[in-house]
Amino acid sequence: QVQLVESGGGSVQPGGSLRLSCVISGFIRRDYCAGWFRQAPGKEREGVAATDNTGRTHYGDSVKGRFTISQDAAKSTLHLQMNSLKPEDTALYYCAADAFCLTSMTLVAGTYQYWGQGTQVTVSS
């Protein structure tokens, strides 16, 4: 059974940094797709960053140059390093994974079958 458990959310001032982690278990193969999404109140779920079956990374336009997605060597934990945080980054952040994804669809929520419970990120002065 695939399970995803996020951690690392919290409150931070604008310009600050946070690192989110997601422990992923249950996949037979390690070349699964995984990504981070976020959803603010009243808004649609937005793709933030993802890594595809080949290990290539993809980023949403609003976070390019500020956020970095990575995985540990065993590919059991997905990280999202968030720097230069802005108030508009405030949202509930979700980790998602699936055994396969099209490269062009890695930032589309419907691509993923498995989701974590979410972790809140609040950026405010």
Give the helix/strand layout:
Elements: E1 3-7, E2 10-12, E3 18-25, E4 33-39, E5 46-51, E6 57-59, E7 67-71, E8 77-82, E9 91-98, E10 114-115, E11 119-123
Parallel strand pairs: 2-11
Antiparallel strand pairs: 1-3, 3-8, 4-5, 4-9, 5-6, 7-8, 9-10, 9-11
Describe the structure.
- With 125 residues, this protein is mostly beta strands.
- The protein is 0% helix and 46% strand.
- The strands form two sheets. Strands 2, 4, 5, 6, 9, 10 and 11 form a seven-stranded mixed β-sheet that branches. A four-stranded antiparallel β-sheet has the order 1-3-8-7, with no helix packed on it.
- Strand 7 and strand 8 form a beta hairpin.
Structural key phrases:
single chain; 125 residues; mainly beta; seven-stranded mixed sheet; 46% strand; four-stranded antiparallel sheet
* Oligomerization: single chain
What gross morphology would you assign?
A: globular
SSE order, one letter for each helix or strand: EEEEEEEEEEE
> What gyration radius follows from the Cα positions, in whole Å?
13 Å
**Average of the residue pLDDT scores:** 94
The strand count comes to 11
- Helix count equals 0
Question: Pairing-aware structural class of the strands and helices?
Answer: mainly beta
Largest sheet: 7 strands, mixed
Strand content: over 45%
Helix content bin: under 10%
Residue runs with pLDDT of under 50 for 5 or more positions: none
What is the terminal separation in angstroms? 41 Å
Write a short abstract of this structure.
The chain is 0% helix and 46% strand. It has 125 residues and is an all-beta fold.
